[in-house]
Amino acid sequence: MSSLVQEIQRDALDPKTGVSDLLRKALVVSTKLKISEDTAWIKAELSGYTDDAELPAYRDLRGLPQVHNHYHGYLPFNMPAEMEQKFC
What we know:
Blueprint: H1 2-13, H2 19-32, H3 36-47, E1 66-69, E2 73-76, H4 81-87
Helix pairs in contact: 1-2, 2-3
């Protein structure tokens, strides 16, 4: 197990290693060590969060939607207020 943890640590320092690859290896470690909270988080990151799941703060993004117009550049995307509250 320690060799897999060391491999994860090495891979985390390698810019060519993808986050998904790191998460899959971390899933093996957390499953073997029976760390259920980490296992659940890793599975959600790899497979997607369910509709009723509480998202981590870093997954809650805010912004203003824009559209690109070839003549005028980026312009605000107007939408109904109820949609704006959900997406913005």
